[in-house]
Specification:
It is a single chain. By secondary structure, this protein is of the alpha+beta class. The strands form 4 sheets. Strands 1, 2, 3, 4, 5 and 6 form a 6-stranded antiparallel sheet that branches. It has a two-stranded antiparallel sheet with strand order 7-8.
């Protein structure tokens, strides 16, 4: 038996929550995770299911997506890295998207009548690619950093700080992708994205509102780009559905099993994969069949 402190919580709890523990100035991931979908404990994603692992170090790159800032006091070659306990901003706050706010607060405090922000970034004013870069920092999967963590801020070119891997059609068509982690790459490989000059993450997501799970709302945002009266839209699948504009998502961005987030649950022999919404917008014949079948059953029930 052993005891380890829960010092830091990672995750919103929608899918689950993992935990980090301090040992001196070093952070380690605990071997157990609370898996919300099954309402029970499991091994932590990415850790072995047949052995208790207590020495998984947490790096600055990990914290770059799960905190707003963490100051390392040892260099990357030294693993595990050491961090200053007093120089960590927990959670993902306004500064992750809008940039450092100290000068902004100082200026606005002295000039309350000034309505134009001078020392903070408004992502909506940036170019399409810079808006995408701000999201891709944490939703761009396995990027290799070329400069120390936390140097990139919104408004800068992500490629100046990371080597960014891109998805290609061959990888997508052969299923050589995972629905978790690289939402940016999946979206960028989609026909909807490639045919648009304006589509960004914020076209669908309002980062200031909790809209998670609101399929009808997201579907309405799809319809703003698609003409439902066009002949090309009148497919067999579309015409056979009731109120198609209320749910485009389950057919074209279905929840699919992740290979990266798969955990061992009590009483189960096989790993259970977490279902995550794919951001590769496409036609999924099998998922469409399931959706049409479910809607038909609902009609009969009513």
């Amino acid at each position: 038996k052993m005891t380890m402190r829960f010092d830091m919580i990672i995750g919103s709890g929608t899918k689950g929550q993992s935990f980090l523990s301090w040992r001196g100035n070093k952070l380690f991931q605990l071997p157990i995770t609370y898996y919300t979908e099954a309402d029970q404990w499991s091994n932590s994603p990415g850790l072995r299911a047949d052995k208790i692992v207590t020495d998984k170090p947490v790096t600055s790159r990990c914290l770059e997506c799960h905190t707003s800032f963490a100051e390392a006091i040892s260099g990357p070659p030294l693993e595990p890295m050491e961090f200053d306990h007093n120089k960590i901003i927990l959670g993902v706050d306004c500064e992750r998207c809008h940039g450092p706010g100290a000068r902004h607060v100082e200026f606005q405090t002295k000039n309350p009548q000034e309505k134009s922000a001078k020392f903070i970034v408004n992502p909506a004013s940036l170019s399409r690619q810079l808006q995408l870069d701000a999201c891709a920092l944490c939703h761009g999967s396995n990027m290799k950093k070329t400069k120390p963590s936390f140097q990139f801020t919104t408004g800068k070119n992500l490629a100046d700080y990371f080597t960014i891997s891109s998805l290609n059609d061959n990888a997508v068509n052969n299923g050589n992708i995972d629905v978790h982690g690289n939402q940016y790459g999946l979206m960028a490989a989609s026909k909807c994205f490639r045919m648009s000059q304006q589509l960004t993450c914020n076209s669908c997501h309002n980062s200031h509102e909790n809209e998670k799970g609101n399929v009808q709302l997201f579907s309405q945002r799809c319809i703003t780009c698609h003409n439902t009266d066009a002949a090309a839209f009148k497919t067999t699948s579309h015409t056979g559905l009731v109120a198609i504009e209320k749910n485009c998502i389950d057919c074209h961005m279905p929840k699919l099993p992740s290979r990266l987030i798969a955990v061992k649950l009590q009483g189960e022999e096989r790993l259970r994969a977490s279902l995550i919404r794919s951001h590769f917008i496409s036609v999924y014949p099998e998922e469409t069949k399931k959706f049409i079948s479910a809607q038909s059953k609902n009609k009969k029930t009513k």
